[in-house]
Write a structure and sequence with these properties.
Number of domains of chain A: 3
Strand content of chain B: 5-15%
Number of strands of chain B: 5
CATH superfamily of the largest domain in chain B: Beta-grasp domain
Largest sheet of chain B: 5 strands, mixed
Number of domains of chain B: 2
Number of strands of chain A: 32
Radius of gyration of chain B: 17 Å
Order of helices and strands of chain B: EEHEEEHHHH
Strand content of chain A: 15-25%
CATH superfamily of the largest domain in chain A: Aldehyde oxidase/xanthine dehydrogenase, molybdopterin binding domain
Structural class of chain B: alpha+beta
Oligomer: heterodimer
Shape of chain A: globular
Helix content of chain B: 25-40%
Amino acid sequence: MAVETPLKGNIGDSIKRKEDDRFIRGRGNYLDDIVLPGMLHMSIHRSPFAHARIKSIDTKAASAVPGVIAVVTGDLLAQHKLAWMPTLSGDTQAVLATDKVRFQGQEVACVIATDPYVARDAAALIEVDYDVLPAVVDPWKSLEPGAPLIRDEKEGQKNNHIYHWEAGDKAKTDEAFAKADRVVKLDTFYPRCHPSPLETCGIVADVNSATGHATLYMTSQAPHAHRTLFAIVAGLPEQNIRIISPDIGGGFGNKVPIYPGYVVATAASLLIGKPVKWVEDRSENLISTGFARDFHMSGEMALRNDGRMLGLRVKMLSDNGAFYADAQPTKFRAGLFHIVTGSYDLPAAHVETDGAYTNKAPGGVAYRCSFRVTEASYLIERLVESAALEMNMDPTEIRLKNFIQPEQFPYMSATGFEYDSGDYPRAMQLALDKLGYKELRKEQAEKRKKGELMGIGVASFTEVVGAGPGKHYDIVGLRMFDSAELRVHPTGKAILKLGVKSQGQGHETTFAQIVTEELGIPAADIEVQEGDTDNTPYGLGTYASRSTPVGGAATAMVSRKLRDKAKKIAAHLLEASEADIEFDHGKFFVRGSPSKSKTIQDVAFAAYTNLPDGLEAGLEGVTYYDPPNMTFPFGTYLVVVDIDRGTGQVKVRRMVAVDDCGVRINPMVVEGQIHGGLTEGFGIAFMELITFDEEGNCLGSNFTDYLLPTSWETPKFEMGETVTPSPHHPIGAKGVGESATVGSPAAFVNAVIDAVGHLGIKNIDMPVTSDKVWEALNKVGAAE
Amino acid sequence: MGQSITVTVNGEQRSAEVEPRLLLVHFLREKLRLTGTHIGCDTTHCGACTVLVEGTPVKSCTMLAVQADGQQVTTVEGLLTGGALHPIQAAFKQEHGLQCGFCTPGMMLTSVALLQEKPDPTDDEIRWALSGNICRCTGYMNIVKAVKSAAAQMKAAAAVPAETAAARS
C-alpha cells in the first residue's frame, strides 16, 4: 500500500482540521459546559406583550422560592445606572424594562437561584401589572402620522423614524432614467429571519469581589470589542475585565451584539459575589436576540432596448424593531447595502434608505453576511431577472452584457466602492458548462410545451467583505483592524494568537497554514489561540467574512516580520551577509549555494542561544493590520427546479456553485464553508421566517415554527472554482464564509420565477413555500 | 423529593437521587458531567442532545432521567474503545463532516445506530436517518460522506477477523 506523505500544511493543502480531535470526542468546551464553584443560575422573566406600560412588578412570590438568591428588576439596575445600555448602532436599549415593554419577549426581570430549574420556576412567579398599548408591527404603518410612539423615552424622538441615509448620485441617476428606453421595477421584501446557531447565547460571569476582577465567559464573536463595551457600559476598569470566548457552537452574526442577559448576569455576580450562569433556551434566542434582514426594497433599473443597463434607483425601508441595535460600521446607517450595484457596470446609481422602529425584537445582525450585503445582492439579482423576463432576454445574456469586465479592475462603483479584482464572465462560463445550461434550456422548452414547470435560476453575486480600512469602517469608534501575535519557541514550535474568534470556521487549522506558508513551520507544530482577551492581541472579531481578509493578513505580515529577523540570525549562523540570504519553504541559504542552509528550527533555537551582537533575543512579534481596502469575492450560482402545479411544491433538482474567493488556504475548509452557506441560503429562500401577528406576537419562536433545513430537504451541491487573487491582500485571499448565503437566495428564487414567469408571475417573496407558489399559480389560472 | 435511579452509562452503572422532572440530558450533563451531549432547541427538533438508549437514538432533552432507570445509555464519550476512535469519529474528521462541532455528537450517535441496522446504507437512507439532527454549518454533504466512509471501514474491519479465522482452520 502506498504511504501518503503527510501534508505540511502549506497554502492550498487540504489538511484535516486540528480542532476536530476534541469535537469528535465530545471534549469541546462550550459555554454551557463551564461550571465554576458556587455558581448560581439566572432565568429571565420576559414580556408577553409587544407594547405595554409597566404599572408594577411584584417579585415577592419569586423571592420566597427556596433556593432563590435574588430577583433583579430594572429599578434595581437603574440605581447602578445599568437599566439602559448603548447599542452597536449608537442607539440605546433597555437592559431590563423600567417604563414600558416594547417587544414580545423583552427582558423584564431576572431570578438568580442555586439551581436552573428553581430559577425558571421562580421567574414564572414574577407578576407584572401591565397597561397594554397598541402595537405597531408594520414599518410603513409605524411611520404614518399618529402611529403609537415606541421610543417615547428618547428626547427629541417625535415619531418612529430612525435614520435616513443615501449613497450614489441622484442627479446623474435621474439623467440616466430620463434617457432610458425602458425602466424595470421590482418591489420585494426580504423577510425577517434568524441566524439560529445550534448553540444559543450565554454567559458565565465571575466577578471577584475581593479583587474587582471580572472574568466573563461569553458566546462572543468579538471578545475584545465586547470587553471595551463592558468597560464603558458597566464602568468597570478595562484591565480588570477578562472575556473568554470558549468553543462556539456556530455564530452567523447572532453572537456579535451584547445582550441584556450578559449585562444582568455580570451585575448580579458583582452584587452577589458569586459566579452567575445564564444560557438562553431556543425560544429566548429566537424571540429576543439579533434577527436578520427585514428589508422592504424597491428597485428600478434604467435600460437601453439592447439590454444595456444605464442606471439603478433603490429605495429601502428597514424594520429595526424596538431598538436600533444593528451591528454595523458607524458611518453606514444601512450597513453596506449600497453594494447593490452588484456585478454590473452601472454608470449611475442612487440608493435611499430609511429605518423604522416597530414593536418587534431588536437586532438587524448580518446573518452570515457582511453588513446587509445579502439584501443588496438579492435585490440586484432579482431585478436583473425581472429585466431579462420583461425584455425577453436570456438571464445569462443580460448579465454577460453588463458585467464589469476583467480589465476594468480596480473598478470604482457608482456608490463609491473600489472593487479590487474580478473575472465575472469566467466564473459564469464555468458554471454554465458544469450545469449543461443549453441542454437544460432545451429541456425546459420541451417541458413547457407539455405544461410542465421547470426553471433555471441564475445569480452572479459580488460581495464586499473584510472591513476596514479603519478610517472608513469602525464600530462604536473602534477601528476595524485586526491582529496576530506569533511566538516561535526555541524548539521551532509556535503559538499564534489572534484578535478574531472562530465559531466553527477552522481557524486553528487555516491560520496555522498561513504561518506554514510564510515561515515553513509545519502546521502541526503551530498552536492557534483565540478568544481570551488577556491572552490575545486586540482585534475586532469574526463576522462579515473579515477573519481571513484582516486577521489572515495580520498573520502573514507578522510571519514576514519574524522572517526578516530570522534572516539576520541565519546570516550570523551561515557567516554570510544578510543581503545574500535567501529563504525558501523553511530554509535559509546563501544565494547560489542552497546546500549550505539552516532551517527555521535551527534559527529559532539560535534566537534564544546564539545571537549576533546587537540583536534582541527571541523570535516573537505582533502585527495590527489595517487593510487598505475591502475584498470583493464573487461567483455564479445556478439552480434547476421543478414545480408541481398541483401542490406548488418546488423541488431543487440541481445546484451548481462556482465561487471565486481569491487564493484558497485550505480547499477542504473552503468547500465546507460554501456547503454550509448554500444550505442556509436554501433555508432562507424556502423555509425560514420570523413573522408577527397584528398584536406583535412572534410567530417563529421555536423550531416547530421556525423551519431549518435538514439533511432530507437540503439539495446536493456541485462545486466549481476560479481564482482571482485580491491584489492588496498579502496572500491574495478574499474570504468565503458568507458568499454562499449572500449569493444563493436569489438563485433559488430566480429559478422559481424562471419556471413561472411566462405565466405572468413576476415575484414571490421569500420564503417561497408551496402554498405561496400554489396561490400564485392559482391566481393566473395555472394551478392544478 | 428525590427518586433513586440506576442507569448504565457507557457501560458503567451510575446511581443517583434525582428529581422526577429532571431531564435525561441534564442528568448526563450536570450530574455525570458528560458534557459531550449538547442542548440546542429543547423541543426534540435539532438532535444535538441525541444519545443511544438501549441502542436506539433518543433526544435526551425530552426524556426524563427516571425513564432511563435500569437502561443502557451511550453518549459520545462512550464511542471510544480503549482510547481508540470509533470508525464514525475518524470518518467525521477525515471527511470534514463537522465545523463548530455542536451537532457532531448527536450526528455520530444517530449514524452509529443507523449502521447497526443498515451496514451499507444509501445516500437517501443516510439523509432520512439523520433528518432529525440539524447541522447549521456543513450542509450535510460531508456528513453523508462520513457515514458512508465509516460504513466501508466497519465492513472492512468486520471482514478481517473472518478471513483470519478461515486461514487458521
